[in-house]
Amino acid sequence: MKSLVKSKPEQGIWLEEVKAPTVGHNDVLIKVRKAAICGTDIHIYNWDEWAQNTIPVPMTVGHEFMGEIVELGSEVKGLSIGDRVSAEGHITCGHCRNCRAGKRHLCRNTVGIGVSRAGAFADYISVPAINIYKLPDAVTDDLGAILDPFGNAVHTALTYDLVGEDVLITGAGPIGAMAAAVAAHVGARNIVITDVNDYRLGLAKTMGATRTVNVAKENLRDVMSELGMTEGFDVGLEMSGVPSAFQSMLDTMNHGGHVALLGILPKGAGIDWDKVIFKGLQVQGIYGRRMFETWYKMGALLQSGLNLKPIITHHVTADEFQKGFDVMRSGQSGKVVIDWAA
Ligand code: NAD
Ligand code: ZN
């Protein structure tokens, strides 16, 4: 089958013929119809230090996808051939303390599709049936392909009560922009989003941010005065992974504020912990999606009218993958969907 493979330990990714995956008793085989390029795939493409330390070579990449079930393992129940599905990309062990307590998102033995085992940029992918999410009719094929990052946004944004609150989102990448959409949908008051990229800030505005701030040109405190925010933000969603952005969040949070950290900060990021302590902030690290509560919430948010469509800015076919990676790497895009079966 056709597959996008990290086949050499150097920059790039290559379209190659590989063997189709086998299907275990508890697995399903999915014919991939749409996939999307994640920031993680860009790290793998660039072959940065994280990728060099993490990614086995050769390996099929990709973990944001949807498709159709074409084969069921002998023990699989509740799913049928032909089901339109996406899948949770974190495969958990099922036997650690957290898994047994129903907190699978905290499994210490998590294995990632397209990171530690064969991924979704391929004609077929095999995944454990428990990871499958059946797509409601309200979720189009395109949106089905981006539920993984939407889930990051939903998990982070719904960690705290946003109703009527003033929310700061640092980082208007695809996930930050989608978090703005969630915050708007559930009734936050001011939704201020920062970035240094005007294209992405424009996208975040379309998605629901009430005020965008290019921190290279504008001062966040001036914006707060303009909005009449005398005390500070109630909720902070860190979605840039940039230390100065996180620091500006700590600086502008109200006392007793709530901060959720999704962005992956570089090792040794200097953080002014005094702000956390003396403001009595609550800080929560976020990893992946809640299994499978976040998936139910995503379906419900889309069914209740949250419009995610504008975040998909580009489509490419599998043969045009290089074009897709190039536009993602340029920063001048939202989500790039690969019409794999086209
Ligand atoms: P992204 O890299 O596309 O977006 C980050 C954005 O931050 C970019 O638009 C960039 O221009 C912006 N930025 C740069 N400097 C900034 C500054 N000083 N202030 C504000 N913004 C600034 O990433 P994404 O795919 O949207 O993901 C967001 C973050 O979440 C990334 O750090 C990613 O690694 C991380 N992530 C974490 C998890 C998890 O499970 N914890 C899952 C997915 C992604
Ligand atoms: Zn586990």
UniProtKB/TrEMBL annotation:
Pathway as given in its UniProt record: Amino-acid degradation; L-threonine degradation via oxydo-reductase pathway; glycine from L-threonine: step 1/2
Residues of the active site: T40 (charge relay system), H43 (charge relay system)
UniProt entry keywords in alphabetical sequence: Cytoplasm, Metal-binding, NAD, Oxidoreductase, Zinc
Gene Ontology biological-process entries: L-threonine catabolic process to glycine
Main location: cytoplasm
Catalysis performed (reactions): L-threonine + NAD(+) = (2S)-2-amino-3-oxobutanoate + NADH + H(+)
Protein name: L-threonine 3-dehydrogenase
Designated gene of the protein: tdh
Domain of life: Bacteria
Subunit (UniProt): Homotetramer.
UniProt binding sites for Zn(2+) 1: C38, H63, E64
Keyword Isomerase appears in the UniProt entry: no
Cofactors: Zn(2+)
SUPFAM superfamilies per UniProt: GroES-like, NAD(P)-binding Rossmann-fold domains
Binding of Zn(2+) 2, residues: C93, C96, C99, C107
Domain Enoyl reductase (ER) intervals: 12-338
